[in-house]
Amino acid sequence: MSKKKEAYLCLSAMLRAREPKLLNADRAARMVEAASYEDAAKQLGDCGYGDMSQMNAKEVEAYLAERRSEIFAELDRLAPDKLIVDVFRMKYDYHNAKTIIKAEAMGQDAMRLMSGCGRISPKAMLELYNEEKYSQLPKILGEALEEAKTTLARTANPQLADFILDKAYFAEIKEAARAIDCPYLDGYAAILTDSTNLKSAVRTLRMGKDMDFMDFALIPGGSVDTDRIVNAGDKEGISALYAHGLLEKAAALGAEAAEGGSMTAFELACDNAVNAYLQKAKLVSYGPEALIAYLAAVEGEVTAVRMILTGRLAGIEPQVIRERLRDLYA
To answer: Which DSSP symbol is given to 113?
Structure first.
């Protein structure tokens, strides 16, 4: 057995042993229905969380960001393929890039909304952006950020800059999948792209935008070609493109959302389709699949914990919180 396979065998065994401690649907339901916020927060002790029972919303957000960063750092040290962890970190780089662009458009301070979970610190990215030293950023990110800044200056439209950064983000994921020759990561990139494109198509129809707008928003590289989406013409045509895959339910709900139906239910179904793809990793004994699925599971768990705890703090009804929760990996 090669050293790389041996390393994945050990890492996969460690992550499989941790999976039972991940937040699952039953634990999440108990948190939603708990008598108080304090009781809900204390239930996370079984999942390895510290005591958040006396935290406010801002403190909860900071704690969860720190926990995520610590997990990323640990798995970066242990992963045979560092690019896999980078795939999950880069989401925060692109979040930060979008934040910088929007802050410039609105004359605001970007730092307070930037995340420390990416590959590049918020301070470093902001300095490189202000000094126009894009070549010191990862190549695809740097080029996209430069193009986004130029587009913002030319159009004063931060949404167009967002589209540029979205396409670059997915291009980086796909490049990582090719670099480590990982079909499962490539499939993960494809289902993410399909989900994102379906959301973009439905939003375009719902807002009454034209097909040129949709074409600019769509991201290449999914299982459904962008030209087919643009040429589908209407909600029924777009829904039919996804009728025989993981996004079938989401596409049906998308057709309803395009005419004023629930966007929450539609977007929930899109996210659940991605989770359904991740579940395939449970059939693989060891390898990069276990690492990818665990990282995605941590992301889903943190999102669910934030939604539940901040919802309880805000006094949101349990039924409303429950309706917004995505499926969990565990």
So the answer is: G
Task: Give the model's pLDDT for residue 34.
Answer: 95
As a whole number of angstroms, the distance between CA 21 and CA 13 comes to 14
Identity of residue 298: V
CB 260 within 8 A of CB 315: no
Q: Within 10 A of 156 (CB to CB), how many other CB atoms are there?
A: 9
pTM of the model: 0.92
Least Cα distance to 112 among 161, 169, 58 occurs for: 58
- DSSP per-residue codes, 160-179: HHHHHHHHHHHHHHHHHHHH
Q: What is the per-residue burial (b if ≥16 Cβ within 10 Å, else e) of 205-223? A: bbeeeeeebbeebbbebbe
Give pLDDT, residue 234: 83
| Burial group, residue 272, by CB count within 10 angstroms (0-12, 13-18, 19+) | middle
Secondary structure (3-state) at 52:
coil
The burial class, CB within 10 Å (0-12 / 13-18 / 19+), for 78 is middle
